[in-house]
Design a protein that fits this description.
two-stranded antiparallel ribbon, 11 helices, Arc Repressor Mutant, subunit A, D-Maltodextrin-Binding Protein, domain 2, 7-stranded mixed sheet, LysR substrate-binding domain-containing protein
């Protein structure tokens, strides 16, 4: 029986629901439910009364949680004790748009907290990174979370939600998106990427039949072209050094603007690995997530 099943049971009882426990542990509600069913099969007894609209813990569930509480606290204290320095190498995969903005912050944080831990950073699109993660070639990834929520076999932690915005040259005199589309060429973000396809779909809603003048493979390239006055585009909102290097006008797409969810993922069994935790914690700190 996997020890993490008891951690999940404890989280359900502490937070009061499967959904809240899933959010705390970075799992999907279905993964939490499956763990509890397997634990019930192992025990041969129900841990939750599912006859009502919400599942209620049985006395056995509370008895188990009380009995293992001391052991869970001891394991957590030992796991988080920082008496042994982290060494070795950890592999982090990120999408391209995070390389110039997020990665420097993450590596600076790890250098300060874990000076003996080496990090190799790999670049790729979200699909490629997930494939490499599942194959064991990466320890953790920072990418666009799939709209389906992502595989329940992986541990997920949301980092930031990025709305898409309309970007125009810094000296453009109009704030009307319709006017700007008529005045400047459309610079399309790479449609081989999910974010590029989302941006193109929204542009077609704003201007049916519009054709792009150029298609560029990176957000930096699109921003550079827009900043130089060569066109307009729709991109995920960026901050920090990239927007400082390539100043543009950002115009909101309104309440119906598409968004993309930046998330951290690792293999389920690795969610409490100390090296992987170092990656996750550095990402959370860099994004200001508590």
């Amino acid at each position: 029986m996997k020890f993490e099943f008891f951690i999940t049971l404890d989280a359900i009882l502490r937070h009061g629901s499967f959904a809240a426990a899933a959010d705390d542990l970075g799992l999907t509600p279905s993964a939490v439910s499956l763990q509890m069913k397997r634990l019930e099969e192992y025990l041969g007894q129900p841990l939750f009364d599912r006859s009502a609209r919400t599942s209620r813990p049985t006395p056995l569930a509370r008895e188990l949680s009380d009995n293992i509480r001391v052991a869970l606290d001891a394991v957590e204290a030992a796991r988080t004790r920082q008496t042994v320095a982290l060494t070795g190498r950890v592999m982090l995969g990120t999408i391209r748009s995070l390389q110039p903005t997020l990665v420097p912050l993450v590596l600076a944080e790890i250098s300060q907290r874990h000076p003996e831990l080496s990090v190799r950073v790999i670049q790729g699109d979200s699909v490629e990174l997930l494939d490499q993660l599942k194959a064991g070639r990466l320890d953790g990834v920072a990418l666009i979370r799939p709209t389906s929520g992502g595989s329940s076999r992986l541990y997920w932690r949301d980092l930031a939600e990025q709305p898409f915005v309309f970007v125009a040259p810094p000296d453009a005199t109009s704030q009307s998106i319709k006017t700007l589309i008529g005045r400047y060429p459309w610079l399309q973000f790479d449609t081989s990427l999910t974010s590029g396809r989302v941006a193109a779909s929204h542009m077609h809603k704003l201007a049916p039949g519009l054709r792009p003048r150029f298609e560029l493979e990176s957000i930096e390239a699109v921003l550079a072209m827009v900043s130089a006055g060569l066109g307009v585009s729709i991109l995920p909102q960026v901050r920090g050094r990239m927007i400082s290097a390539y100043p543009v006008q950002e115009i909101s797409l309104g309440k119906n603007a598409p968004v993309r969810q930046i998330a951290f993922a690792c293999r389920g069994p690795d969610f409490d690995n100390r090296r992987v935790m170092a990656l996750r914690d550095a990402l959370l700190i860099s994004y200001g997530v508590n």
